[in-house]
Design brief:
The protein has 485 residues and is mainly alpha-helical. It has a single domain (41-106, 130-436), classed as Ammonium transporter fold (Orthogonal Bundle), CATH 1.10.3430.10. Helices cover 63% and strands 4% of the residues. The chain is built from 19 helices and six strands. Strand 3 (113-117) and strand 4 form a beta hairpin. Helix 2 (23-51) packs parallel to helix 5, helix 2 runs antiparallel to helix 10 (234-253) and helix 3 (57-84) packs parallel to helix 6. The N and C termini lie far apart (67 Å). Keywords: Ammonia transport, Membrane, Transmembrane, Transmembrane helix, Transport. It is a multi-pass membrane protein.
């Protein structure tokens, strides 16, 4: 049958499918990027808007939404090349735009890696992903966005929204890009052999330390909010958590940069560890507090997902179970026991416990990667060839030390530079909301509320609530008083 494509367009169609393009890999990478994007919007938007007190639902959800949009623009204008471009410093790339057609349509490339042998060191180019640079830019963009959004979890319920709008691009530029280049973009930790399969250090450790540090500088929530801060919608909170869990298939499954066997292994290990961790956290709640907590189960799910992230495609299934047991118990202990006894942790108001669920779980996962990484699986993951975990002997013990040192660098850099960013922002804008806004919440900050429920004797004011159409509201009496609905 003759082609239905007009002759004038056939050449363009051929050009859009160059010989090096692998359609399967490209399709999976775009799907994985979409899954990670859905973790943020609407996943964390829903989760944040539901897990907080009702008066902070809009503000919390909006902080996540704004960060996603701001990161996208900053990423393509300068931050992508700071993360994956030419080296400026051993831990930082040169800034530049990733916007031009010639750049975005060319084949994606990864940095060179170093293979270690007894007789010396040999520099070799890594295999190049068989999809356009545009795919790589977008895939890494959604990772950058979710990192900043995770950090926001430490600050809900009191950070000045204008200060947050200024903070986002600064933290992305001076904190996130450093971790990415150092570990994934060809920086010194990358060449040294520190293993971070999908962001245990780059994303979770950095967001946990960044959030905890920022929470110190912003200060705590109001006393009333710290004493009682119930979620306003537990069922919707579960929906957001579900999007986060299933979206992690793209989070970890997309990092081999191909639809290959390692990708499948990463997805399976991710779900094994998350399920195990959720169950362990829930059992600990029942044993020590007599009731299974829904919020606790979500926290256990998250710590399992975070812990397996640096190891997802590098460990076997049995190791994923062990990591799930540890990720469901170690962060549980730091959050439920240590947090209450350590003055520093108790003094800093980390709203959603991001320090425990991401920093502790991420560092734990990175260390466990150095213990359980299987040599054959390591060889499938390009940046860590010729590496092995401690349980497999050989150089595995050194790998644990590398993991510890790599995590220490991420902690130190983010604690110091995040503090500097907060001090700079504070020179321009107050980091904390004024007391009047802290007392009222969303209505004072945004002029909007999460739920338009007028059935509790509340007065309807058409001047204030003018978004509603006239046919659904009662006319305001001529005397100027409001009418109850």
């Amino acid at each position: 049958m003759a082609s239905t494509v007009p002759v004038a367009y056939r050449g363009n169609l051929s050009a859009s499918v160059p010989v090096w393009l692998n359609k399967g890999d490209n399709a999976w990478q775009m799907i994985a990027a979409t899954l990670v994007g859905l973790q943020s919007v609407p996943g964390l938007v829903i989760l944040y808007g539901s897990v907080v007190k009702k008066k902070w639902a809009v503000n919390s959800a909006f902080m996540a939404l704004y960060a996603f949009a701001a990161v996208v623009l900053c990423w393509v204008i300068w931050a992508y090349k700071m993360s994956f471009g030419d080296k400026l410093l051993p831990f930082w790339g040169k800034a530049g735009p990733a916007l031009g057609q010639k750049y975005l349509l060319k084949q994606s490339a990864l940095p060179a890696t170093t293979h270690y042998y007894k007789n010396g060191t040999v520099e070799m180019a890594m295999a190049t992903p068989f999809y356009p640079m545009a795919t790589m830019v977008w895939f890494q963009c959604v990772f950058a966005a979710i990192t900043v959004i995770l950090l926001a979890g430490s600050l809900l319920g009191r950070m000045n929204i204008r200060a947050w709008m200024m903070f986002v691009p600064l933290w992305l530029t001076f904190c996130y890009t450093v971790g990415v280049f150092s570990l994934w973009g060809g920086g010194f930790l990358f060449h040294w052999g520190v293993m971070d399969y999908s962001g245990g250090y780059v994303i979770h450790l950095s967001s946990g330390i960044g959030g905890f540090t920022t929470a110190y500088w912003v200060g705590p929530r109001s006393t009333r909010d710290r004493e009682r801060f119930p979620p306003n919608n537990v069922l919707l909170m579960l929906a957001g958590a579900g999007l986060l869990w299933l979206g992690w298939a793209g989070f970890n499954g997309g990092d081999p940069y191909a639809a290959n066997t390692d990708s499948s292994m990463a997805v399976l290990n991710t779900n094994i560890c998350a399920a195990t961790s959720l169950l362990v956290w829930t059992w600990l709640d029942v044993i020590f507090f007599k009731k299974p907590s829904v919020i606790g189960a979500i926290q256990g799910m998250i710590t399992g997902l975070v812990c397996i992230t640096p190891a997802a495609g590098l460990v076997q299934g049995w190791a994923a179970i062990v990591m799930g047991i540890l990720s469901g118990s170690v962060p549980w202990f730091t959050m439920m026991i240590l947090h209450k006894r350590w003055t520093l942790l108790h003094h800093i108001d980390d709203t959603l416990g991001v320090f425990h669920t991401h920093a502790v779980a991420g560092y734990l996962g990175g260390i466990l990667t150095g213990i359980f990484a299987e040599p054959e699986l390591c060889s499938l993951f390009l940046p860590v060839t010729n590496s092995r975990g401690a349980v497999y002997g050989g150089s595995g013990g050194i790998q644990v030390l590398k993991q510890l040192a790599g995590g220490a660098f991420i902690i130190g850099w983010n604690a110091v530079v995040t503090s500097i960013i907060c001090l700079v922002v504070r020179l321009v804008l107050p980091l904390r909301m004024p007391e009047g806004e802290l007392m009222i919440g969303d209505d004072a900050v945004h002029g909007e509320e999460a739920y338009a429920l007028w059935g509790d004797g509340e007065k309807y004011d058409s001047e204030k609530h003018r978004l509603y159409s006239e046919d659904t509201q009662r006319q305001k009496p001529s005397s100027g008083t409001t009418q109850e609905v």
